[in-house]
Amino acid sequence: MAAPKTSPLDADVPGARSPDATRARDGEASRATILSAARAAFDDKGYAQTSLREIARNAGVKPSLVVHFYGSKAGLLAATVEWPFDPDTVVREVLAMGPDHIGERLADVFLETWEQDGRPNTALTLLHAACERPEAATLMRELFTTCVVAPIVRAIAPERAELRASLVASHLLGLHVGRYLLEFDAIAGADADLLKQALASTIQHMCTGPLW
């Protein structure tokens, strides 16, 4: 049997993209479009009032593609502010340790994030933006409280959960300000493990202890 004829169009063309390269390029373009639509929606309407369907519609993609890339609305919010962990993953991991280790795990997560490479750039950038723009302040509050701390607190201590979550989030942000922004000598120079222990005990009480 004669070999099938090969068209010149089938031959390798220098500089031509492979199907895999084309799909990767299209995927990156879709990610960028989704993030741009999400930032605009979050800035305009806030996190709570924005739906994944709306973001997908504005980006011109299916909602399933948004979920494929970012997992959830919380994951998408983290991506828009370039936060280095996925909120949904953190919530699952912290709760998996049980209610008696909530403070310890939350302290670990946040201090490890801030201490990466000795440069807490993402959090500082977001904090500076929050001081200048109400929309950025809203996103930071929702990232810390709505997406991370509140789901954990609601799962273990339904009594006054909103107040507990706000106290924990403000305590975490307060330590961040003192260590990296205002640089109080004792806090900035303290060993990270010591700070974790101090932070863990306070957060644990805010999550599970009496508030009176």
TrEMBL record:
Residue ranges constituting the HTH tetR-type domain according to the UniProt record = 28-88
Q: Where is this region: Disordered?
A: 1-29
Q: Where is the composition biased (Basic and acidic residues)?
A: 20-29
Q: Which residues bind DNA?
A: 51-70
Transmembrane segments annotated in the record for this chain: none
- Protein name according to UniProt: TetR family transcriptional regulator
Q: Known PANTHER family for this protein? A: HTH-TYPE TRANSCRIPTIONAL REGULATOR RUTR, TRANSCRIPTIONAL REGULATORY PROTEIN
Q: Name one Pfam family in it.
A: TetR_C_16
From which organism does this entry originate?
Streptomyces lannensis
Q: Which UniProt keywords apply?
A: DNA-binding
